[in-house]
TrEMBL record:
Organism field: Cannabis sativa (Hemp)
Keywords in alphabetical order: Calcium
A Pfam family assignment: EF-hand_7
Record-annotated EF-hand domain positions: 20-55, 69-104
InterPro entries: EF-hand-dom_pair (IPR011992), EF_Hand_1_Ca_BS (IPR018247), EF_hand_dom (IPR002048)
Protein name per UniProt: EF-hand domain-containing protein
GO terms assigned for molecular function: calcium ion binding
Length: 145
């Protein structure tokens, strides 16, 4: 477990590093595609958001609290992801929505850093964004030395 500090630019850097971002999103996609049919169903995506804890921690203040509200929220998110209304979310849809969500989070964070306490194996994108930032800092420091 560790504490990381991230702000909007941390998240934006992560998203704009396209190869790294796509790799990470694709990994997430594969691990979420429980029945391995190459697309995410409503159930799979719902599990995804429960796992990533994006909704509870980052979708804003006072988001859904009851099971019913949560359910509606997950439904509306699924509809957002499923751009072509096919009833499933494919890899491209997943990538582009994750990007939008993360950029929205970045805007929300702005330049005020937040502290996050994370498990070492935390699967969230924000953890990966923070790791990327840390590795860049490390490179910067070693090149200055
Ligand atoms: Ca699937």
């Amino acid at each position: 477990m560790g504490v990381v500090i991230i702000d909007g630019s941390t998240v934006r850097d992560f998203v704009s590093d396209e190869p790294e971002f796509n790799k990470s999103v694709d990994e997430q996609f594969v691990s979420l595609d429980l029945n391995k049919d190459g697309v995410l169903s409503r159930t799979e995506l719902r599990k995804a958001f429960q796992t990533m804890r994006l909704i509870e921690s980052h979708f804003g203040i006072d988001v859904a609290t009851t099971a019913e509200q949560l359910s509606q929220l997950y439904d509306s998110i699924f509809d957002k992801f499923d751009c072509d209304r096919s009833g499933t979310v494919d890899r491209e849809e997943f990538r582009s929505e994750m990007k939008k969500i993360l950029l929205a989070i970045a805007d929300g964070l702005g330049s005020s850093p937040i502290q996050m306490v994370l498990e070492d194996d935390d699967p969230t994108f924000l953890k990966q964004a923070a790791d990327l930032e840390a590795s860049k800092l490390a490179k910067l420091q070693s090149s200055n030395a």
